[in-house]
């Protein structure tokens, strides 16, 4: 390709067999082939001081990388963007930014045995096919996969001193919009934020809030998170203290959870030896949890149930005579116990007034 200056510029470059390309701190490797298409960039000479006319000098032209296609166990490492890619095939376009030329969009294709993976700082997605837009922080997987990100709130709504990972798997599709703080999943969704908390549903929507960079909020000491007050009101469990193992650093916290299609939320408490002490389970067709500190609420629309089990020997102490009687606080058994509440209307819980309400055909056991 000849430019306006008559200078010959490259249009395409192809390399085959154990390719390695390096640009500054950025590296790309491919076992089979790398094809690079170039674009022509024209740079005019600078304007004269105090005016718009050219200060003289020749027009400069140069070829820059426009697109890349790599085949065969491809890896891309870009420390400047905090980006790592791996796939059987990667196609991406390159644009100019403040750090030079960098990946803007990429399509990664893997195999069921070796899926494609995108990692950027504390965010990672894995699937047979992954589409990402780096500046806008979005990713899509048209199929099954896994997403892991870090949050200052876990799936129970507990506020953490350090962020911990939330991991989600699904069968059908995933859409993540980092700038909008939304992640959506469909098909046999399973989410967990530690080894003791899970959400299962047909569809799941997670919403986040950006944390201030200067400081994080203090951690909530309640071990049961969202379940804590519910458990307290049912009078069965005395949650122990302790905080989960912190994950890598991140700057988001979970603000809302919307699980639909046979939604089930499980929470288990264990002792230091790993023995199960107690378990809580909430089930309904649709479970909505608003975890914002100023408006914490939970809502289950339709028929559902709450189960709370205690496996440890010994019972909670009944309420003292001079303290308000908690819901079921005085009927705790002398050993392991189980409480089941079912309804056909709906269940809602308002943290601000510490009130639980069950509607229609309520059955308490």
Largest sheet: 10 strands, antiparallel, barrel
Topology, number of strands:
24
Helix content bin = under 10%
The N- to C-terminal Cα distance equals 80 Å
In N-to-C order, the SSE pattern is EEEEEEEEEEEEEEEEHEEEEEEEE
Based on the model shown, name its key terms.
365 residues; 24 strands; mainly beta; 2% helix; 57% strand; 10-stranded antiparallel β-barrel; single chain
Structure description:
The chain is an all-beta fold. 2% of the residues lie in helices and 57% in strands. It is built from one helix and 24 strands. A ten-stranded antiparallel β-barrel has the order 6-7-10-11-14-15-13-12-9-8.
Layout of strands and helices, then pairs:
Layout: E1 12-16, E2 19-23, E3 26-30, E4 33-43, E5 60-78, E6 83-97, E7 100-109, E8 116-120, E9 123-127, E10 129-133, E11 138-141, E12 145-153, E13 159-170, E14 173-177, E15 182-194, E16 197-210, H1 226-234, E17 252-270, E18 276-290, E19 297-301, E20 304-310, E21 337-343, E22 346-350, E23 355-359, E24 363-364
The gist of it:
The protein has 365 residues and is mainly β.
């Amino acid at each position: 390709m000849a430019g306006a200056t008559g200078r010959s510029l490259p249009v395409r470059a192809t390399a085959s067999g154990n390719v390695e390309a390096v640009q500054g701190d950025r590296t790309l490797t491919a076992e089979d082939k790398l094809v690079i298409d170039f674009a022509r960039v024209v740079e005019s000479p600078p304007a004269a001081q105090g005016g718009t006319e050219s200060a003289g000098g020749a027009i400069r032209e140069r070829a820059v990388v426009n697109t890349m296609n790599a085949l065969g166990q491809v890896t891309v490492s870009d420390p400047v963007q905090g980006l790592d890619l791996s796939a059987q095939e990667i196609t991406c376009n390159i644009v100019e930014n403040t750090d030079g030329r960098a990946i803007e969009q990429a399509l990664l294709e893997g195999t069921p045995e070796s899926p494609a993976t995108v990692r950027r700082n504390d965010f990672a997605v894995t699937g047979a096919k992954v589409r990402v837009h780096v500046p806008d922080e979005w990713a899509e997987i048209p199929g099954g996969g896994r997403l892991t990100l870090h949050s200052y709130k876990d799936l129970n709504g507990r506020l953490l001193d350090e962020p911990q990972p939330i991991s989600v798997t699904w069968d059908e599709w995933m859409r993540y919009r980092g700038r909008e703080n939304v992640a959506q999943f469909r098909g046999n969704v399973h989410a967990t934020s530690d080894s003791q908390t899970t959400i299962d549903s047909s569809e799941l929507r997670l919403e986040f809030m950006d944390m201030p960079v200067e400081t994080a909020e203090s951690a909530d000491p309640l071990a049961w998170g969202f379940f804590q007050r519910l458990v307290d009101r049912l009078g069965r469990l005395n949650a122990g203290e302790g905080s989960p193992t912190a994950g890598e650093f991140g700057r988001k916290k979970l603000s809302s959870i919307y699980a639909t299609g046979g939604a089930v939320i499980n929470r288990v408490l264990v002792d230091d030896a790993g023995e199960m002490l107690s378990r809580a389970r909430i089930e309904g067709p649709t479970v909505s949890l608003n975890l914002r500190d100023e408006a914490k609420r939970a809502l289950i629309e339709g028929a559902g149930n709450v189960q709370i089990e205690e496996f440890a020997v010994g019972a909670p102490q009944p309420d003292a005579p001079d303290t308000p009687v908690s819901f079921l606080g005085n009927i705790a058994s002398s050993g392991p116990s189980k409480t089941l509440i079912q309804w056909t209307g709906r269940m809602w819980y308002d943290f601000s007034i510490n009130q639980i309400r069950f509607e229609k055909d309520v059955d308490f056991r």
